[in-house]
Amino acid sequence: MALNLPQKIGALTTITPAGDQVGTTVRKPSIAPMPGGANLKCRIRASGETEPLTPPLSPCRSPIRTDLAVACQALTADLADETSPHVEEQKHLLERPKGEGVPVYVMLPLDTVRPDGQLNRKKAMYVSLMGLKKAGVEGVMVDVWWGLVEKDAPTAYNWNGYTELMEMAKQVGLKVQAVMSFHQCGGNVGDSVTIPLPRWVVEEMEKDPDLCYSDQWGRRNYEYVSLGCDTLPVLKGRSPVQCYADFMRAFRDQFAPYLGNTIIEIQVGMGPAGELRYPSYPELNGTWKFPGIGAFQCYDKYMRSSLQATALSAGKPEWGHSGPTDAGGYNNWPEDTAFFRKEGGGWNGPYGEFFLSWYSQMLLDHGERIVSAASSIFSAQPGVKISVKVAGIHWHYGTRSHAAELTAGYYNTRFRDGYLPIARMLARHGAVFNFTCLEMRDCEQPGDACCRPEALVKQVASAAKEAGVRLAGENALPRYDETAHEQVVNAATSGDADDKMVAFTYLRLNPQLFEYENWKKFVAFVEQMRKGKAQSREVVEREAEQFVQATSPLVQEAGVALMSG
């Protein structure tokens, strides 16, 4: 019979290192709070260069006491020694039992693998993974960057850092969600580093700028190769979709021993920030600011060629010259524009319906091509599921046109469900529908921007249920408070067993997560997700308090290691 949390505490409060005669008593540490709110700066770190974490953090003002450091080192040594006869028993006592709720994963730092292809901050990573495991976390999510692995030449893959990470996760006992990140890191919310696309891809984009997404003002976006050229041999003789498929196939072959046991999910990136969408709201250089409506990205020659052909086929060649010219700019609001306004807006007329149907169908076709390739490549791997991430664009959701969703490629309006076609496409391939902004409440958002994150999450859940596709979730922004945790629990565990999400991925592993109060709340959150609503939060928090005190040496070690690198 599995031990409950209070029973485990007795085994945790005294840890006797091998060879020692006296146990070390664990006490609640005092960890100084860390400043937040700093601006994030994007840059590439050269090989071998050291750099403080971003956002900048103050040094820990509470050094690890000798007894805590000894206890932590003994704990890590014991768990790493697989030949020790009491290791499995010790692991069992430390780990929290599985429940029937929603498993929680944690996103790893964006720079988990360095520009030179090696694993970053190895000690910090190992201790952090152990801390997550003890808290009941199911696994971690990691970006497998196209721009790092295939950086220098086509099909020349460097998996070194990721191989080390997978082995580390296996040793600790954590599952891995591997993200095939075919986009640039840098220029989106939360991007604290810059990782461009592979060098040889950028060279081709510089030779032919129409490989980039483009807006009506001629602004090019280098975050992701335009889907307009998905099937054309524009990248050194291969099409973008062929490049993505070759990358996934090489990943499958490299990590075959881990697939199905350690690596249990392949999330396939399909656009900026890894999401199935157009780069309609780029933050880089201040182009877009929340809550602007964004801008259509259909002005490269490949997209325009498709638009012209579709308009000609529809008997309306005059509709194929351009996207809407009256849709405003990135930072306009719907009522500022003739196309998106409530009364008489072009979005709801014959031309608007034609254009938006074409624009959204191009995105759907793009998604289908890549998820089809991924499903085929990993179909023979039991225990591995495919997932696709869709953005939670909640601003202006309360308006009729849903302008910000339309520019991103989601044909969702007051009169049309834009998420059901996506859900049905994913269902055809047995893929998981991964959705963001689960932590957000309507009352936290600016009312004048008609933000409705709660209604949006409910709509997506309904579409997933109707299509018969499994749903998973993420938080869009870092949150450590109980209000956000409660919102996620309600969204992820509501309804009967069939309505529960298959997983939730928490944003993100960093030093702030291991601060005492944040860690205590996070442990309670993981337990609540594991048990769902069957147990009151008060009971969970009481057990979490005991658990956190007992595991404080490991947690403090993880926090300090992340800060020091």
Automatic annotation (TrEMBL):
Q: Which SUPFAM superfamilies match?
A: (Trans)glycosidases
GO term, biological process aspect, one: polysaccharide catabolic process
Instruction: Show the InterPro entries listed in the entry.
Output: GH (IPR017853), Glyco_hydro_14 (IPR001554), Glyco_hydro_14_CS (IPR018238), Glyco_hydro_14B_pln (IPR001371)
Q: What is this protein called?
A: Beta-amylase
Task: Cite the binding residues for substrate.
Answer: 143, 183, 191, 389, 394, 436, 475-476, 508
Signal peptide limits: none
Give the Gene Ontology MF terms in alphabetical order.
Answer: beta-amylase activity
Q: Where is the active site?
A: 275 (proton donor), 474 (proton acceptor)
Q: Which family does it belong to?
A: Belongs to the glycosyl hydrolase 14 family.
- State the reactions this protein catalyses: Hydrolysis of (1->4)-alpha-D-glucosidic linkages in polysaccharides so as to remove successive maltose units from the non-reducing ends of the chains
Q: Which domain of life is it from?
A: Eukaryota
E.C. number, please? 3.2.1.2
User: Which organism does this sequence originate in?
Assistant: Rhynchospora tenuis
Q: Which UniProt keywords apply?
A: Carbohydrate metabolism, Glycosidase, Hydrolase, Polysaccharide degradation
Keyword match Hydrolase: yes
